[in-house]
C-alpha cells in the first residue's frame, strides 16, 4: 500500500526539565490494513504530565526535492494535528514554507478529549475494543482532566478518532490488524499505554478508505512533536519539541506491518518482519526501573533492574572517562524476566570521574542505550604524574621517591585488560620512567602505580 506522507520516530528533546514534553519512541507507519484508521505513534511523557490540548504533531519534507534529499532546505508540512491550546497551523511558528496554513497546502486535524462527554464515549469504545481483542488492559483512558500522567507511555492513534456522518470510523479489521495480545501475560499487561485519538478524516465520509495514509513509505521525512507550555502559541520558544529524521525501508507485506523504531545511535530503523503487531519490546524497548553506580571498596558497583524485558540477548556495559567516548568493558546475559535485577563491578576505576552506560541488544538487532551514571573516586595526593598527557608518542611517568625501592607500573585499557606491566627501580628524588606509549593505539588508558601495598591510578590519553 503506497502512502504519500510520513512521520517519524524516536526524538530528541530540547526541553527544560521544568516543562512538559513528549518523546517519540516508535511509529506504526505502514499497517497491515487500514492505513488511515490504524496508524499510530508511541511516545513517552517526562517528569511532568502533558495536556492533550497542548500537543501538536506533523511531519515534513526537509528539502524542496520530493525525496527530501538535496535541493533547498525547507520545512513543508502536509498533515497537522493540533490541540486546542497549540497553534492551529505550523506557519509561521514551525514551517519555513511561505503562507502555509490549514486549508492552504496543509490538512489539519485535532484530538478527542476525555473531558468532552461525546468524545469520552467514543474514546472508551475504542479502548474497550482494543483491550477485548488483546485479552488484557493494555490501553488506559487519559483522565478527564485531559492530562496524560508523567512518566507514561502514550499511543496516539492519529486517525482512529474520526467520526463521519455514518458514525465513528475507529479501526480497520482490528481483530486481525490491531491485535495487541502479545502485550499480555495471562490477564495482565506487560506494558500499558494511555490512548489519545486524533480526528484525521482520511478514512472518508463512509469510513471505507483503507489506503493512502498520513505517513510516507516513499520518501524521507522528519516528524515533529511539540508541547505548548504557555504564553504566545505562535512563538516556538514556548514549545518543547521533538524531531526524528527517517528514510523508509523496503515495502511491507499483507501480514507484516512497517514500523519505525530507534536505532540506538540517534537514528531510526525501518522493520517489517514483526507481524501485524510487533511485540511490546519492539514498540517500547527494554524499560529500566533504575540504573545506578556507586563506589565501594575502591570499586565501581553498577546495579540495574528491568521494569519490562523480553527478547533481550544481553546488556553491554560501556565505560568512559569523559562522559562522551565510551568503549565496551563487559557484558551480562539477559534473563528475559521482567523485574530482573543485575549487577556488574568495575574492579579498576580511575581516580576522579568514571562514567558508565548500558547498551541493550535485542534478538531482532535493536540497540538501546541507558542514561549515563557517574562514579567518582577522590583524587589522592600522589608522588607521580604523567607527561605529556595527552601523548602522541612516548609518555613519561615522573615519580618522586623518598627512598630507593621497587615499584610496579601497569597500563590497562578502558575495559580493564592489561596492556603492559613492568617493574621499575626508583631512587630518592625525581625519577623519569618511560611508559609503553608509542606502540599504544589511540584511546584512553589507565595507568596504575603499585608501591608496596598501595595502588594509585591516573588516566592517560593517547592521540
Topology readout:
Elements: E1 22-30, H1 35-38, E2 40-45, E3 50-51, E4 55-63, E5 73-82, E6 101-102, E7 105-109, H2 117-134, E8 139-141, E9 147-148, E10 153-157, E11 163-164, E12 167-168, H3 174-177, E13 184-185, E14 188-189, E15 193-197, E16 221-228, E17 239-246, E18 258-262, E19 268-271, H4 280-283, E20 287-296, E21 299-308, E22 312-320, E23 327-333, E24 341-346, E25 352-362, E26 367-369, E27 373-377, E28 384-387, E29 396-401, E30 405-413, E31 418-426, E32 429-434, E33 443-451, E34 454-462
Parallel strand pairs: 5-7, 6-7, 8-15, 10-15
Antiparallel strand pairs: 1-2, 1-18, 2-10, 3-9, 4-5, 4-16, 11-12, 13-14, 16-17, 18-19, 20-21, 21-24, 22-23, 22-25, 25-26, 25-27, 28-29, 29-32, 30-31, 30-33, 33-34
Amino acid at each position: 500500500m503506497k502512502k504519500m506522507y510520513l512521520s517519524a520516530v524516536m526524538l530528541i528533546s530540547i526541553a527544560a526539565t521544568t516543562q512538559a514534553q513528549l518523546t517519540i519512541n516508535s511509529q506504526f507507519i505502514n499497517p497491515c490494513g487500514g492505513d488511515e484508521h490504524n496508524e499510530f505513534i508511541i511516545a513517552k511523557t517526562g517528569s511532568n504530565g502533558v495536556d492533550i490540548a497542548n500537543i501538536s504533531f506533523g511531519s515534513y519534507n526537509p528539502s524542496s526535492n520530493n525525496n527530501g534529499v538535496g535541493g533547498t532546505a525547507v520545512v513543508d508540512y502536509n498533515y497537522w494535528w493540533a490541540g486546542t491550546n497549540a497553534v492551529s497551523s505550523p506557519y509561521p511558528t514551525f514551517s519555513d514554507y511561505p503562507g502555509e496554513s490549514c486549508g492552504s497546502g496543509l490538512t489539519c486535524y485535532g484530538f478527542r478529549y476525555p473531558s468532552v462527554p461525546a468524545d469520552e464515549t467514543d474514546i472508551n469504545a475504542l479502548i474497550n475494543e482494543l483491550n477485548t481483542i488483546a485479552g488484557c488492559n493494555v490501553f488506559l483512558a487519559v483522565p478527564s482532566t485531559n492530562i496524560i500522567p508523567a512518566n507514561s507511555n502514550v499511543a496516539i492513534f492519529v486517525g482512529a478518532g474520526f467520526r463521519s456522518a455514518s458514525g465513528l470510523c475507529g479501526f480497520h479489521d482490528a481483530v486481525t490488524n490491531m491485535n495487541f495480545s502479545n502485550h499480555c501475560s495471562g490477564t495482565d499487561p506487560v506494558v500499558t499505554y494511555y490512548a489519545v485519538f486524533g480526528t484525521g478524516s482520511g478514512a472518508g465520509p463512509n469510513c471505507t478508505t483503507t489506503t493512502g495514509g498520513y505517513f510516507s513509505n516513499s520518501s524521507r521525512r522528519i516528524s515533529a512533536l511539540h508541547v505548548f507550555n504557555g504564553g504566545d502559541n505562535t512563538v516556538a520558544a514556548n514549545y518543547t519539541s521533538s524531531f526524528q529524521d527517517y528514510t523508509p525501508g523496503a515495502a511491507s507485506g499483507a501480514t507484516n506491518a512497517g514500523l519505525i523504531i530507534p536505532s540506538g545511535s540517534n537514528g531510526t530503523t525501518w522493520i517489517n518482519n514483526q507481524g501485524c503487531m510487533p511485540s511490546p519490546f519492539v514498540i517500547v524497548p527494554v524499560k529500566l526501573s533504575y540504573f545506578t553506580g556507586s563506589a565501594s571498596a575502591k570499586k565501581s558497583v553498577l546495579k540495574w533492574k528491568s521494569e519490562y524485558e523480553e527478547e533481550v540477548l544481553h546488556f553491554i556495559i560501556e565505560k568512559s572517562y569523559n562522559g562522551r567516548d565510551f568503549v565496551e568493558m563487559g557484558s551480562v546475559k539477559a534473563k528475559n524476566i521482567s523485574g530482573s535485577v543485575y549487577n556488574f563491578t568495575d574492579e579498576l576505576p580511575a581516580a576522579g570521574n568514571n562514567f558508565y552506560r548500558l547498551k541493550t541488544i535485542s534478538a531482532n538487532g535493536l540497540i538501546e542505550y541507558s542514561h549515563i551514571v557517574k562514579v567518582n573516586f577522590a583524587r589522592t595526593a600522589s608522588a607521580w604524574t604523567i607527561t605529556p598527557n595527552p601523548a602522541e608518542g612516548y609518555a613519561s611517568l615522573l615519580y618522586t621517591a623518598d627512598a630507593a625501592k621497587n615499584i610496579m607500573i601497569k597500563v590497562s585499557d578502558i575495559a580493564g585488560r592489561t596492556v603492559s606491566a613492568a617493574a621499575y627501580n626508583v631512587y630518592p628524588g625525581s625519577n623519569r620512567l618511560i611508559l609503553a606509549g608509542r606502540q599504544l593505539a589511540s584511546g584512553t588508558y589507565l595507568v596504575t602505580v603499585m608501591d608496596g601495598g598501595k595502588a594509585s591510578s591516573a588516566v592517560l590519553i593517547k592521540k
